[in-house]
## 1
Amino acid sequence: MAKNLSLLDKSQIEAYLTSNSLKIGVVGIGRIGLPTALCFANSGFETIGVDINTELVTMVNSGDYPLKDEPGFAEIFENVHRQKKFVATNDLSKAVPECDIILLSLPTPMDDKNIPDYTAFLSVGKSINKLLSNGQIVIVESTVEPGFIENELLQTIEGPNHTLKSGVDFHLAVCPETANPGEIMKDFKKLPRLVGSIDEKISSIVSQIYTHVFGVEIISMPNCKTANAVKLTTNVFRDVNIAFVNELALLFEKLGIDIYTVIDAAKRKYNFQPHFPGPGVGGPCLPVNSYQYLNSSKKIDQNFLKIVQEARRINENMPQHVIDLLVNAFSELNKQLDNSTIGLLGISYKPNVRDVQIAPSEAIIKLLNAKNVKLKIFDPYFMSETVFGHKIENSISDAIIDSDAVIIITGHKEFEELNLETFSNSRNKPILVDCTGKINPKDAKSRGIIFRGIGRGNYI
Ligand SMILES: NC(=O)c1ccc[n+]([C@@H]2O[C@H](COP(=O)([O-])OP(=O)(O)OC[C@H]3O[C@@H](n4cnc5c(N)ncnc54)[C@H](O)[C@@H]3O)[C@@H](O)[C@H]2O)c1
């Protein structure tokens, strides 16, 4: 039977921690939940991962693992697998009743109207209403809007007839995950964690447990909604600042100014934080988090955060700008884009990860499909797979050869080796559009390449 930690004092909890006698459940073992579960298991706690994805459950139980793009993940996975401290299941009812702590690391996407979609949370909340009993602590690790935990999740877990009572039969807490894909294992060891709860005592218990497992600074939050607001604020800050540099990029292209030269010099002032332009802002976090804040404002019948609305509009328009740069390069050669062959390098939403959620590449591909362009796409993380309706090539050269133009969308480390000499020798007047800022425009021009880059005003 699960332990009711809320009845224990600090030293009793310490005794459970040092003897590894807490049982942990993690519901949702994806990009964030699985590494989190493994950290608990690696600290010596028996840990159960629950996921609706049967294939994933079978895979991890057999000793194979996803997240091969996550440095340091293989080591911890293999160590935990050897020690048999972690097991995955599809069955929530096998995990929840016996776990003392239940972490929710469920997806929080948005629907096609950009409204946050909490279906997974509400479905799990409804199910665990029948499974919780003895004052277990449920910790929300996912990114949700301020107020969602207090106003929706709590009621869902209590049930329509209040068969459970928060603060008695279960306790709700929050510890939003802030790790960065591609750096998750490193971030787990270094980033501070925000901990909040509906009840102060639960906050301090959760802080004690997270300190034991992760050994990082804990920032105490007065409640759940403030912790969620901190998480959203850090991400929306980035979305808005990227929109600012994206719009500067558009201006500088017209004024003949190079944005990278400007950012490089500006960052030498102590209070400037560099952000960089690009083909848009994707991934499961930044765009969704901006819409989560906008939804919070809408829910109280307010039209706050116009700056965030505008940032979204600017960032969502960047794929069209990439096409405009491409068309502009074609016009220098008096050529039409229609019916040409275009090579695309990188489809992930950010460098060095295997993830195409809300990736700007999808919008770029749709715009090019509408022009009847033949596409040859390469991304080292998706070789030979079919993504966005296109078979991904096996090498950079397969995507470049026979293409009238190449667009570098994602700055994967593999593209740093792109040999401009070979590229320029492979055809007459090759076109290169760089969305990453990694290509030196002078080098490209000196090799006879028709070069365009976002914000590269000097070179258009
Ligand atoms: N990926 C990131 O960069 C990142 C970083 C910080 C925080 N977050 C937040 O963490 C949360 C999880 O994100 P993620 O990237 O790990 O998502 P993910 O899609 O990689 O993982 C979610 C997992 O939950 C499972 N799942 C879905 N519905 C379920 C259900 N009803 N019952 C059990 N399992 C279910 C899915 O099968 C999947 O394996 C989100 O709120 C996200 O915003 C993500």
Note: The two ends are 68 Å apart (CA to CA).
## 2
Amino acid sequence: MCRKRAPAAAREYAAESAASRLAYTLVALKRAMWRPPQRIRWKPAPGRWPSAEEAARSLLFSPIAVGRMRLESRTWVPAMVPWRATEDGLVTDENLEWYERFARGKPGAIVVEATGIRDIPSGPLLRIGHDRFLPGLRELVRTVHRASDGRTRLLIQIIDFLAIRRRPEPEKFFQRYLEITPSHRARIGAEDWPEQRVREHLARLPQEALAGILEPREIEALHYGYRERVSDMHLPHIRDLPQALPDLFAQAACRARAAGFDGVELHYAHAYTMASFLSRHNDRPDGYGGPRAHRARLPLAVFRRVREAVGDDYPVGCRFLAEDCIDGGNTVEDTTYFGVEFARAGMDFLSLSRGGKFDDAKQPAIGWAAYPYTGRSGYECMPQYVSDERGPFGRNVEPTAAIRTAVRAAGLTTPVIVTGGIHGFEQAEALLAAGKADVIGFARQGLADPDWFEKVRLGCGAEVRVCEYTNYCEALDQRHHQVTCQLWDREALDEPGVKKSKDRKRRLLPALWARRGP
Ligand SMILES: Cc1cc2nc3c(=O)[nH]c(=O)nc-3n(C[C@H](O)[C@H](O)[C@H](O)COP(=O)(O)O)c2cc1C
Ligand code: SF4
């Protein structure tokens, strides 16, 4: 049973929906993403596919316990936002159909996309911050269990994020957004000027001159758009995050349980609030920043409150970063520590991602918000086929294996999930056999072919549609367009009953698998 506490005050989320903005082409987007300068072109190499008998004997298709939950196979589809919720965060038919399509492939587990824990507007992202979201979420659970014949466990990723605004028109920035301070006035010798004159003066200054007048965060707000940080202690709602977040996460987890989800994944990864608490850049002076143990304090407090609320028998784990992949960010030295602490606290699984930070994101165009997957760390999160000598396949394996080793050395058996560029059976099986991970995540490969799991299990691996790691899907995500895969979204577009994207140019789901052999 879920035990409730008084609800924490929800704060205004200032991010604006960009769903209706269709100004940029995908070609332009691809250019906007960072790629390693070596520009080596890689082709996916799925290797040999197993026969049905070999698959049946494999580790990959053997069951595993994740807390009290049993996965039929060690395959996992990590969270992927498909941009199919309503503007109010409710589950749509398109959401149901999306997850139903994945469930037909019968992976061991699917994690539903990052779902907001607050009851505040956040565009077409799923939300779980109020009981009114429960009917849609219940239907989602029923749909997945039915479509997978009960073979797929369904978890939901629950997330908190801070405010981020679009990059402003410089004119508007100086006229409206910039707060004129005595320091600005002193630096330009304008102590007794009317405010409007100060604004007009600043707006006319060249960049170099502004650098000596505006604060670094003001320059950032001008060039990238304003973005909150967990260390903004002057903002009461940021200062109070350690008091507010445990209850917000716990209430969301209770709703997940009430909706019938098989478990919850706390989102402690990428560019969002909890990962920012874990980050080496978190210098909060209140005991929740600075040394590693302090940075882990709130993530552990959130987990304990969630555990207390949902009970010991309900699977709860987290997704966090094996490496931040930014200058001065967390390395495996930090993340092995976090992994052991999370496991010791009683988390049921640890799912590892990497990178995806705002710190090195590219400057957005005016009118767009910064996107945390456009810099080097973004590349590390979703590496694409244009790469360096290491290539895009399995870049997260060794750091994840280091975390697993540390967890095992601490005497803990918590399952560890590795994700990143994994698309072949042999590759996945070898990782499990070598003890690098316990469960294998297939995100983009699952999107390219949701039937990967059934095809491989049944000895039909030759029929797999192999992901080419082009990141076309990720570019759609970046523009908040409905996510599809370029390998199937133009196929048989005129077939009756095919549901199309808002621009009518793409089908929203891959066609059903028509088995050819064996
Ligand atoms: C369209 C898209 C949406 C994603 N949304 C999420 C998300 O909501 N939460 C998350 O933790 N990761 C998200 N990711 C990252 C994936 O879960 C995964 O970590 C990443 O794609 C690397 O794995 P892969 O190489 O198997 O694709 C997303 C990835 C894609 C392509
Ligand atoms: S669009 Fe398809 S092929 Fe390209 S990376 Fe995404 S899932 Fe893979």
Note: The two ends are 47 Å apart (CA to CA).
